[in-house]
């Protein structure tokens, strides 16, 4: 994909996005998050790099993903039974709770983070990779109104796994292997598919060290 078409894709997504906000109670969400602690850690900071940190994630993105998990469009064996039991109010409350927490922060791999910073901030127009900063912000806080997630302090292992899934159009797949899409998933499929394994490794390392 050429630079102009990637830029147009980003601009169209931003223009078309409408705010999706969660109207929940962080206090109620704290009580409901008891079963989430086993995987996502106390205060939303996971102790396992295969499972995402949720602390500081914007509420609209958490809300969207929980609806996709509950509806089966995004299948993961551990999440499926958890999400299936959630009501709309539960989802709103959990989203409000996790968005109010602070990520603890992790260290970036010194061998890769500088190359990752370059890609995050400037992209690689020659390969059709736009700058991550355009959607996820200068310090990785995301864009709640447009549905773009916060990335800062996310485990590199988890980020690599998700980018590979996007590249293979396999992030939003149901239990039967049928592909679905999230609000901005098609754009991420295109971007991730243009990234090399080294690009993914480097930007994931940089994201892990963002504060």
Provide a short characterization of the protein structure.
The chain has 211 residues and is mainly alpha-helical. Helices cover 49% and strands 0% of the residues.
The total strand number stands at: 0
Q: Report how far apart the termini are.
A: 32 Å
Report the total helices: 11
Residue fraction in strands = under 5%
Mean pLDDT: 91
Largest beta sheet, briefly?
A: none
Computed over alpha carbons, the radius of gyration is 16 Å
Helix content: 40-55%
Written description of the protein model:
This protein has helices at residues 3-16, 26-32, 37-40, 59-71, 79-84, 88-99, 113-122, 133-136, 156-167, 185-193, 197-209. With 211 residues, it is mainly α. Helix 7 (113-122) crosses helix 11. The longest helix has 14 residues, at 3-16. The radius of gyration is 16 Å and the shape is globular. The model is unreliable at 1-22 (pLDDT under 50).
How does the SSE layout of this entry go?
Elements: H1 3-16, H2 26-32, H3 37-40, H4 59-71, H5 79-84, H6 88-99, H7 113-122, H8 133-136, H9 156-167, H10 185-193, H11 197-209
Helix pairs in contact: 2-6, 4-6, 7-11, 9-10, 9-11
Key traits:
11 helices, single chain, mainly alpha, 211 residues
């Amino acid at each position: 994909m050429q630079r102009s078409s990637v830029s147009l894709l980003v601009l169209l997504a931003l223009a078309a996005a409408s705010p999706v906000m969660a109207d929940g109670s962080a206090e109620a969400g704290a009580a409901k998050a008891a079963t989430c602690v086993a995987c996502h850690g106390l205060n939303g900071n996971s102790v396992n790099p295969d499972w995402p940190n949720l602390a500081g994630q914007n509420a609209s993105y958490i809300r969207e993903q929980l609806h996709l998990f509950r509806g089966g469009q995004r299948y993961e064996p551990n999440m499926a039974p958890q999400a299936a039991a959630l009501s709309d109010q539960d989802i709103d409350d959990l989203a409000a709770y996790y968005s109010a927490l602070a990520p603890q922060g992790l260290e970036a791999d010194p061998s890769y983070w500088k190359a990752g910073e370059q890609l995050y901030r400037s992209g690689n127009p020659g390969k059709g990779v736009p700058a991550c900063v355009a959607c996820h912000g200068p310090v990785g806080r995301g864009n709640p109104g447009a549905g773009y997630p916060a990335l800062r302090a996310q485990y590199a292992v988890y980020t690599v796994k998700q980018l590979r899934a996007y590249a293979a159009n396999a992030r939003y797949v149901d239990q039967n292997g049928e592909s679905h899409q999230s609000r901005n998933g098609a754009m991420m499929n295109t971007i991730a598919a243009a990234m090399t394994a080294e690009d993914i490794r480097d930007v994931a390392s940089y994201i892990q060290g963002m504060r």
